[in-house]
Amino acid sequence: MSDTNESKQAHWDTIFSAKQDAELGWFEDDCSQTLSFLKNTAISASSTLFLAGAGTSKLVDELINTDANLIINDISAKALEQLSQRLNNTKCQYLHHDLGHSFDKGFDKGFTVDVWIDRAVLHFLLTEKQITHYFENLKSTVKCGGYVLLAEFSNAGATHCAGLAVHRYSENEMQVRLGDNFELINSKQYTFVNPFKQERPYIYALFKRRQ
Ligand SMILES: C[S@@+](CC[C@H](N)C(=O)[O-])C[C@H]1O[C@@H](n2cnc3c(N)ncnc32)[C@H](O)[C@@H]1O
């Protein structure tokens, strides 16, 4: 990893080392908002799901119950370590990678997924180069007929999270960056109330890749 990558990883590792889950500003005990969008994606035991920047999210525990294959990503080795110890599930694969960098660099590009799920990760990528790499990674990975769920701070949302600036999203910007091969299925403005009782407006949008 480059110096920049190492400092980003260190930032997140420090957070996951210092705090319990319920002390994290994005912690969700109840993942039903995300799960309600995923109901439209026909997840089965033969599906492969990509969890971008999964952190230590309880969503992963819910998705294990579907028997799908999970590829669990994060820039933080600490988060992946904590999650793998908690899950203790041999079916999960872990991918330690900064999604602002191309999968070409140091990772076998050969995998494909049925559903790409991102809650509160994409919005931490700030430069055009990082954002472009993220969407290239997504497009090289999601199968035709597969789905993408993006849940990011909306334009009405906070400007910072976890001590970092964020790039806020509209449904339109998501669509433009995904391109015409992705069709919007459903979207919703959703205000998440975090463990500190602060309101965090998100935009949730589910897209389907055309056949
Ligand atoms: C706000 S937390 C959200 C965690 C989880 N998705 C959830 O909803 O609980 C952001 C997560 O993204 C990870 N992350 C931040 N930048 C990343 C990057 N460039 N590539 C991969 N993961 C990243 C962090 O380590 C952290 O786990």
UniProtKB/TrEMBL annotation:
The alphabetized UniProt keywords are:
Methyltransferase, Transferase
| Superkingdom to which the source organism belongs | Bacteria
Q: Does the keyword Iron-sulfur apply?
A: no
Per the record, the GO terms for biological process are: methylation
Q: Which GO terms describe its molecular function?
A: methyltransferase activity
**InterPro entries found in the cross-reference section:** Methyltransf_12, SAM-dependent_MTases_sf
A Pfam family that this protein carries is: Methyltransf_12
Q: Which residues form the signal peptide?
A: none
Indicate the segments forming the Methyltransferase type domain, all copies.
53-147
Q: Does the keyword Metal-binding apply?
A: no
What's the protein called, per UniProt?
Methyltransferase type 11
